[in-house]
Amino acid sequence: MTNLEPEGFVWPDPAAFYVDVVKVPDPETVKYRVHLDLATTSAAHQAELVARLKELGATPADVGQGDVPWTVLADPEGNVFCVLEPREIYRDTGPIAAVVVDCADPRAMARFWGEAIDWTLHEVTDDHATLRSAKGVGPYLEFLRTTPGAKTVSTRVHLDLLPNPVDDQAAEVARLQTLGATPADVGQGDVSWMVLADPEGNQFCVLGRA
Predict the structure, then answer these.
(1) Mean pLDDT across the stretch 79-90?
(2) pTM for the model
(3) CATH number at residue 78
C-alpha cells in the first residue's frame, strides 16, 4: 500500500484529503461507479494539467461523454477520472474537486451519506446531489443519477471512514447499519477495519485501531 497525504496533515482536518493506493489482483475491466474529478483554475491550467498527466502515463478515455468541456482520462491501470474545466464551485477544494458516485437515486444516497458523515447538503435534485464538509472545506461528494445496473464487482475507489475517537468503531458501525448500511465481504479476512456497503451496494470501510 502507498499512502498519499498533504504535507503537515493532522487528523481530524476536514480540509485534508489523502489517498491510499492498495495493490489488488484484478485489472479494471468495467466502468466503475466511483471516480475522482480534478479541479482547475483556468483553461490554460486545464490544458497544462491534462498534458502533464499524459506525460505521467494517463490516456484518453471514452465513457460515452460526448462533446463536453471536461477531459476524461484513465490512469495507467485504467481507472477513469476527469479533469474539469474551471468552475467557481471548485475554486477552493484543492486539486481534487469531488468524489463522484454514479447511482440510481441521488436523493436517497444524499440522505444516507449526509447522516453517515454529517456533511452539508448543498444541492439535491432527482438527477444530482452534492455534499461537502460542514466546515466548507475540501472536496465535494457528489451523486449522479445513471442506470448503473446490478453491482457485480468490488468498487476500486471507495471511502474510508475514521471514527472520532477511533476506539468507537463498533458503535459507529452499529450507527451506520441503522441508517441502512450492510456488512460486506470483499475477501478482506481478519483485519482491523470493517467493510460495509451503502444502500446501493457501494463498499466503504470503517477504520479501527491497527
Answers:
(1) 96
(2) 0.84
(3) 3.10.180.10
